[in-house]
Q: What sequence folds into this?
């Protein structure tokens, strides 16, 4: 989309429109997340050829096809691993990973934890609908106890994970929660997450109107309370964030739970990247270095 | 028959088998000798039993050989296990204070060393090793200075007192041997050549650096871990990003992510880790993002025998990932080839935008070989294929809005690949089937015509890969009595078996397969049609290569030699099996490995 000439003119929402329209069910929460991402990129004016949207598999993981940035629609659960490799090979790119709760917390749980402790500089948005949608409605790692699905028709007996507490415990340096029904708030969170130099995690409530009849817009609307509305809340205090992360029920906090800026991101911590992105580096080992490698063996 | 000299040093893990091995290797290498080293060991950090075999010669030594000329048992267990294998002309050096010899064959020289008389063993715990090295060196006809130089380097950091102590202990062993033991009739030769000594793992890692690999990641797994160790230690000098990842699924996905950004990317593992990577290989093929994956085979199935060698992963490699997709698979023929193959594989993977798979094994990965420095070429051809980066992309004309098609239909099946960051080439790559512009066909747009076109586009690359890779060649005389067919790491041992057979009046030739995919079946059939008796030699139970060759060409050999006890072939295993088969005794030989470790 962006030619050399166009990249000098301001980025608009039209520039970010994908080649095809989203094929999500009408009313799906993911529409709101896509549109908040597009708005955030326009507000930050990041040239779209420098943005890569990377996803796994699932309804929400179809997002890279619906936005006009570079994209990778990878394997189920593996988007964070792919994104880590891509970011380390070219750390000048803005990397956004998007996916669902099954993709990120189920099959991809291992990569989720390790990408957080590595503090890879990317924004990870989980469109959390507490259900498996693309496989037509099974229990997910965030489904509540008692929820009836096709895979647990008599009700889920397994405790759900708490993505916010997990992210805090694993060392994520930016942890937030959004709600697809709160566009402005979500757009701000995404902007801050992109600007954060390190791993940013956003768990976003994105209701599934087809398979989840428990966690609906009607269910969320009275419950979500913005942390930003409480002037006394300080997101630099990890213990306070952990305490807030445990709130669930009549009141569910959304917003920026935690952010710390004193930890270098993975690419900043690696001296091998001091001279710039690997993708621009000379593939040849300098002759004197190569000679040294061989002499070690003689 | 070529003149070689083999030393066997055995003991418990943690007893210091490696140090005398390194010292002998250094001394041999500085005399300009070729050497081959193989360490038979167990999956244990302390204890157990290990036997390091170092075989040296003025000529190339391609395998561990059939005999041990000098055995140095560091404990009773080693003596009990291996003395009986020594034959006339061999010698055994041992600590007479702690080790008792058993019955030995006629002509074997038993050389007891009175270690406590020669050194203060309360201060120097490894005195027996140093004394034995000194004594052995005298018997090989090598001047003491060679050992003194190496000991000086070895202990320099620990100060002059430690150097002097070790030199004097070694000298005591050297002098004791001069007074009491018979030297070998032929002193070890000397040449003006100088070789590098390296393992296959180091060779593959350096081959990666030479190929321009900028991203390497791995999860530790024997016997592939050596690649990670070299990469990690040399990453900063070579400008390579090296990561240790949470599991092999993460490894292959991270490697592909880096490749998608435009750098050369590689990872190595063993069979278990490779199994976890399978789905990722399909992704590389579907997205058309090149990646090079090395599988260092060990004895399977499952955890198997982690420290033992096998060629048992061929079918896993052939069947890795579901669906049909283009890829290349090659097995390096020796340790020097481990280096050479890696840049070749990256060129293929880049040109054809598909996975390039290297099927190595423990024998090469952890074995060590002398390689001439000129065979470690850090300037191999680098062909990145049709790649559009910000450097070359911005200078060329930026395509009009939306006209760039990542998966453009071409005659070769290869479509120019733009990497993220290049203006005007925005697209999404996907594991779902897609159209030329990258848009998925698999959800609501499923279209059998387009699916077929895209399958055919990708599979057209198979023809290109085949044309880019040479067919195998026969070595040795045409029309020989027997043709031995092997693949990968068995090259050296089969070569030596052929030499021995020829000396014994049975002419033999060899067809060694390096490229498994593409196989060049027609060329193989053309070669084999003149063969009088064909035998396939491989390190596995079911004849995986024999079955593969049959499935691709309908070729059925006259016989098979297989081994699946975890240890590599020795030349006499093959020689004896060939004789059995030519005399009609059997069509399937499974040689017994006489050395138990």
A:
């Amino acid at each position: 989309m962006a030619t050399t000439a166009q990249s000098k003119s301001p980025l608009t929402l039209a520039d970010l429109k994908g080649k095809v329209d989203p094929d999500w069910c009408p009313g799906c929460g993911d529409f709101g997340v896509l549109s908040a991402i597009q708005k955030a990129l326009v507000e930050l004016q990041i040239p779209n050829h420098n943005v890569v949207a990377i996803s796994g598999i699932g309804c929400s993981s179809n997002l890279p096809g619906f936005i006009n940035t570079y994209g990778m629609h990878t394997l189920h659960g593996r988007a964070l691993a792919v994104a880590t490799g891509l970011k380390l090979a070219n750390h000048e790119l803005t990397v956004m990973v998007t996916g669902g709760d099954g993709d990120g917390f189920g099959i991809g749980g291992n990569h989720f934890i390790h990408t957080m402790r590595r503090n890879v500089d990317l924004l990870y948005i989980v469109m959390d609908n507490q259900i498996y949608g693309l496989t037509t409605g099974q229990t997910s790692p965030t489904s509540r106890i008692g929820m009836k699905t096709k895979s647990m028709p008599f009700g889920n007996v397994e405790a759900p994970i708490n993505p916010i507490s997990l992210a805090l415990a694993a060392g994520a340096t930016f942890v937030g929660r959004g709600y697809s029904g709160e566009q402005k708030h979500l757009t701000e969170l995404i902007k801050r997450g992109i600007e954060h130099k390190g791993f940013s995690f956003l768990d976003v409530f994105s209701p599934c109107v087809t398979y989840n009849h428990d966690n609906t817009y009607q269910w969320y609307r009275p419950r979500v309370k913005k942390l930003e509305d409480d002037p006394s809340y300080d997101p630099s205090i990890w213990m306070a964030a952990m305490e807030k992360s445990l709130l669930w029920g009549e009141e569910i906090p959304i917003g920026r739970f935690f952010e710390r800026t004193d930890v270098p991101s993975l690419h900043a911590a690696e001296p091998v990247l001091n001279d710039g992105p690997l993708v621009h580096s000379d593939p040849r080992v300098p002759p004197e270095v190569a000679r040294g490698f061989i002499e070690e063996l003689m | 028959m070529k003149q070689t000299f083999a030393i066997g040093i055995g003991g418990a893990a943690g007893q210091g088998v490696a140090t005398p091995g390194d010292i002998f290797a250094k001394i041999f290498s500085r005399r300009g000798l070729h050497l081959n080293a193989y360490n038979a060991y167990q999956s244990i950090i302390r204890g157990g039993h290990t036997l390091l075999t170092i075989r040296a010669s003025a000529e190339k030594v391609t395998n561990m050989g059939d005999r041990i000329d000098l055995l140095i048992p560091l404990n009773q267990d080693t003596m009990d296990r291996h003395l009986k294998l020594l034959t006339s002309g061999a010698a055994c050096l041992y600590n007479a204070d702690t080790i008792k010899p058993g019955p030995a064959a006629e002509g074997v020289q038993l050389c007891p060393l009175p270690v406590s008389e020669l050194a203060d063993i309360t201060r120097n715990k490894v005195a027996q090793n140093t004394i034995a090295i000194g004594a052995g060196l005298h018997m090989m006809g090598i001047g003491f200075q060679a050992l003194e130089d190496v000991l000086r380097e070895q202990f320099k950091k620990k100060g002059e007192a430690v150097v002097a102590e070790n030199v004097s202990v070694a000298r005591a062993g050297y002098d004791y041997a001069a007074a009491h033991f018979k030297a070998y009739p032929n002193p070890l030769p000397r040449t003006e050549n100088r070789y590098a000594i390296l393992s296959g793992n180091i060779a593959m890692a350096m081959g990666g650096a030479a190929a321009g690999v900028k991203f390497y990641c791995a999860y530790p797994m024997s016997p592939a871990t050596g690649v990670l160790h070299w990469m990690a230690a040399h990453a900063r000098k070579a400008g390579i990003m090296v990561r240790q990842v949470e599991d092999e699924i993460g490894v292959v996905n991270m490697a592909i992510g880096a490749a998608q950004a435009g750098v050369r990317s590689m990872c190595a593992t063993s069979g278990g880790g490779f199994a976890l990577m399978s789905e990722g290989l399909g992704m590389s093929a579907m997205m058309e993002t090149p990646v090079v994956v090395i599988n260092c085979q060990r004895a399977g199935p499952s955890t198997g025998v982690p420290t033992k060698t096998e060629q048992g992963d061929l079918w896993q490699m052939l069947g890795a990932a579901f669906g049909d997709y283009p890829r290349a698979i090659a097995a390096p023929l020796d340790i020097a080839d481990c280096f050479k193959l890696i840049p070749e594989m990256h060129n293929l993977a880049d040109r054809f935008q598909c996975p390039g798979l290297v099927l190595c094994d423990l024998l090469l990965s952890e074995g060590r070989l002398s390689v001439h420095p000129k065979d470690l070429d850090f300037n191999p051809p680098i062909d990145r294929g049709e790649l559009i980066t910000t450097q070359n992309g911005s200078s060329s004309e930026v395509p009009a809005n939306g006209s760039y098609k990542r998966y453009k239909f071409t005659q070769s099946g290869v479509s120019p690949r733009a990497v993220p960051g290049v203006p005007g080439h925005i697209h999404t790559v996907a594991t779902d089937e897609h159209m030329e512009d990258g848009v998925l066909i698999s959800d609501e747009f499923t279209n059998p015509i387009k699916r077929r076109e895209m399958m055919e586009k990708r599979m057209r690359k198979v023809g290109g890969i085949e044309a880019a890779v040479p067919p195998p060649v026969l070595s040795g005389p045409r029309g020989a009595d027997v043709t031995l067919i092997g693949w990968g790491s068995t090259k050296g041992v089969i070569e030596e078996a052929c030499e021995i057979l020829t000396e014994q009046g049975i002419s033999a030739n060899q067809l060694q397969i390096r490229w498994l995919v593409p196989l060049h079946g027609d060329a193989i059939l053309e070669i084999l049609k003149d063969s009088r008796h064909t035998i396939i030699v491989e390190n596995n139970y079911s004849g995986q290569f024999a079955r593969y060759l049959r499935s691709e060409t309908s070729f059925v050999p006259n016989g098979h030699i297989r081994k699946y006890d975890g240890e590599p072939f020795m030349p006499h295993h093959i020689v004896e099996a060939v004789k059995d088969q030519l005399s009609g005794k059997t069509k399937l030989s499974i040689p017994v490995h006489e050395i138990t470790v």
Q: What stands out?
A: Chain B has four domains: 5-180, 201-375, 387-468, 474-589. Chain B has a mean pLDDT of 95.
